[in-house]
Amino acid sequence: MEKIIFFGLVIPIMAYVLYLGGMAIMNGFKSKEANRAEKEEAENESGDTSETSAEQSSNLSDELTKLNDLKEKGIISQEEFEKAKNKLLNN
To answer: Which end of the chain is less congested by CB atoms within 10 angstroms, N or C?
Structure first.
């Protein structure tokens, strides 16, 4: 009689514990997949910003080249060149 009561309680409890463990594992997999998708989206967005930063650096180098040409031709002084260069680099 004691064995019947023991197994009558233990088996459902064990089944419930296994169910909870399985649900926890599945929720972990779902969360991991959601985090992976968010990370991929963030990488795609950051990839777009790297392209714009490459364009900005290209524009910056073009502007610095133009300023250097103006300085070499004597159109602007060394002091004006330094001010304009600092303004470009700080923005």
So the answer is: N
Distance CA 53, CA 68 (A): 22
- 52: tokens are 């714009």
Question: And the tokens for 3?
Answer: 């064995």
The encoded tokens of residue 30 equal: 């779902």
Q: What is the DSSP letter of 90?
A: H
Residue 51: pLDDT band with limits 50, 70, 90: low
Class of residue 72 by CB neighbours under 10 A (exposed 0-12, middle 13-18, buried 19+): exposed
- Distance, CA of 77 to CA of 44 (rounded, Å): 44
Supply the pLDDT for residue 3: 83
At 87, list the tokens.
Answer: 């303004």
Vertex 59: Cα angle to 61 and 70 (nearest 5): 55
Question: Residue 48: is its pLDDT beyond 80?
Answer: no
Closest by alpha carbon to 68, among 54, 84, 52, 55? 84
